[in-house]
Structure formats: structure tokens, C-alpha cells
């Protein structure tokens, strides 16, 4: 399905990431995503 250019959706999120160091690399231990706001057609973001 091709979406028309008039279908828009915007979402702003805040990411809180807890990192741990193992040897010479950083790994994500936990990631929390908080959606701050959104606007537009919610169907555009349905697959996200």
C-alpha cells in the first residue's frame, strides 16, 4: 500500500538508556522509551 504525501504523523520520544561496559565495548542493559507527544494521523505510525 502506498501512502499519500498528505498522510503525516510525528512522534517525539525520550530515550533513557542504561549502559554497561564489558571489555572494550558498551552494551545496552535497558532502554526505556517515553512518548512525549504525537500529532497527525495515528495510522501512519501504526507499524512503528
UniProtKB/TrEMBL annotation:
Domain of life, per lineage: Bacteria
Protein name: Integrase
Species the sequence originates in: Pseudomonas canadensis
Amino acid at each position: 500500500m502506498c501512502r499519500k504525501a498528505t498522510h503525516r504523523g510525528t512522534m517525539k520520544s525520550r530515550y533513557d538508556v542504561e549502559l554497561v561496559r564489558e571489555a572494550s565495548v558498551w552494551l545496552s542493559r535497558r532502554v526505556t522509551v517515553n512518548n512525549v507527544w504525537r500529532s497527525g494521523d495515528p495510522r501512519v505510525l501504526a507499524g512503528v
